[in-house]
What does this fold into?
Amino acid sequence: MLTSVELVEFAAKNGIPIWALDASIALVLALAVFSLCGLGVIVLVYMERKVSADIQLRLGPTHVGPRGSLQLIADMIKLLSKEDVFPKHADRWLFRLAPALVFIAAFVGLMVIPIGPRLVVQDLSVGLLYVLAIPSIAVAGLIMAGFGSYNKYAMMGGLRAAAQMVSYEVPRALSVIGIVMLAGSAKLSTIVDAQGFWYIFLQPIGFMVFLVSTLAEINRVPFDMPEAESELVHGYSTEYSGMRYAFFLFGEYIALISAAALTVVLFLGGWHGPGPELLGPIWFAIKFFGVVFVIMWVRWTLPRFRIDQVMDLGWKVLLPLALLNILITGIVMSI
Amino acid sequence: MDKLEQLKTTRADLDDLSAEFSSNEESEEGSKDIKTDVLTINFGPQHPSAHGVFRGVFEVDGEIIVGIEPHIGYLHRCFEKIAEHRTYTQFIPFTDRMDYLSSMLNNWGYVISVEKLADVAVPERAEYLRVIVGELNRIASHLVFLSTAAIEAGALTPYFYYFDERERILWLFEQLCGARFTYNYMRVGGVRVDTPDGWLDDVLAFTERLEKTMVDYDKLLLGNYIFKKRMKGVAPFSAEQALDWGLTGPSLRASGVNYDVRKADPYSVYPRIDFDAVVLYNGDNLDRVIARSQEIIQSINIIKQAVAQIPDGRVYSPGMPRYVTPPPGEAYAHIESSRGDLGFYIISDGSPKPYRVKIQGPSFGNLQVLPAIATGSFFSDAVLIFGTLDAVFGEVDR
It folds into this structure.
């Protein structure tokens, strides 16, 4: 693999300006992450359909491709070929922008997550802050979708999404402070390396708070209030169809990827595992799919909270627990 | 120094502005609060949890319901009028399509009224078969109730488990009368056909299976913390309220009123069967769900006894004429349907066709309570309350 110094020398020899080099590297990396993401979404959607089918005494997709594995691709072709429908009084710009914003907000969070030693797009020193803060942009997207659709169900879904995601950001951010204290850094690769002993054992309260608020943050059951189909039809994405709807779906699954990967990095020792360092990404993948399976298992088992219960849980249970966790961590560390 | 001055003036301007704004508000609204408005949401008739074709105009203040106006009539098919142009037997298939989740019980309610009118005796075996299929159908209907309650609470999985069990009942019915949904099984003076060989054993095997699986399913759904939290204490109504609104069936018994037609006005062979009417006392959503779950257990109990007691013999009264022609007069008979007190009031003018059939369906009575108990609850809960009232629109509109 070429190091950056060699690359710069190569560029200087051939008269390529540095900005072009930077841009092309960024483009290549973005494409790499994007295609990895696309693959991840395909795998996760297939997994979700098979896991849910197994839980629900069904078979799931079986016809398209071997064991139905190409079902999502067929679905995507269907969604792509659909008519682009705008509701009559929709705000066209908000309506158009919202899916893209949700998708991008979910996508850029992945840039700082290391999946192996040095296997990361940009190992920021404030990586943890970044990855917790970036998904908040999606809130704006959801409100735009809800408001722009000119639909009362969508509007209520958007408002619920905003209330819920903003509320749960607080306990989610506070729950990982214990980890920052233990690792002494907010750089994700440092946090992984600091885990000789996984943080899930050192920070059990933090882990629980983080997992629950993560479920709320990515709008999965039991916190899928924003798209509660029993009352809100489909929440903020009620009026969407075709490829715009697919982008919401993509955004949702990429948020899931990002959340599960972050859980692995923070609490499950990242790429660490027995065997040579080269096996790192494989260990990471195993842990990642374990977390994803748990999230799916929860989704297909539990009912949904009511909006006031969601708020109560966030502010009255998780927030004090997260603060308690910081306190305990501080006391233990000072002893 | 300049900057400080500038800041001060800005601050002063802001104060002026806000004062002006609030004084405006006061003069117009008489309140400093932000002006809020009630959102009118049209719920249904094509809404995913509208249970068929319910349309409710919901007035929502934020997440709180401040008014509900139910609209019915989307499934009105003039059954009562049609009955006047059909012979007594020809009307039986129409009753299938009223409360389509418990067609057997509708059949039963109708034929029992005609039998009372025409004074027809029913063979013993037919009475027992009616009890068995009626209770099986009650179980099937309650399973649908439980699965939809789970879906409305957001849990999608119990639906498949309950429907798996229901599917076995439909299979039994298919063996018995050839239809899975609209059975047209009962006749004035008996039932249409006797059981195929081994059918009663299949029924017993099914009840034994269901007894075991219901324990698991109750743990999964009724034992779930979130489900209980969603359901407990939501929209309770007292016994008086329930009686005032004319509630019947499991919803009434969940409020503490011990009224079950099978006990209060026994018909068929129910007096010979030992069972309890399920009575619960909170009258909230959770009790309405638990009542159904326990009624399934009671129904299993009834089926087991009926299968043990069933005699051999005819299933259709001998010497029944091709056209049932009751003497002029009127009769009312009612049964305990899976939703409550289902009554048929029939007037005969001595011809082979009824002069008038008035159907008293429990769903209509149960539905009308919705605005009274759902107002003031959360929008999400209104859907659940609507679900636990268990209205089937084929029967509300008829």
Remarks:
- DSSP finds 15 helices and no strands in chain A.
- Residues 41-56+86-334 of chain A form one domain.
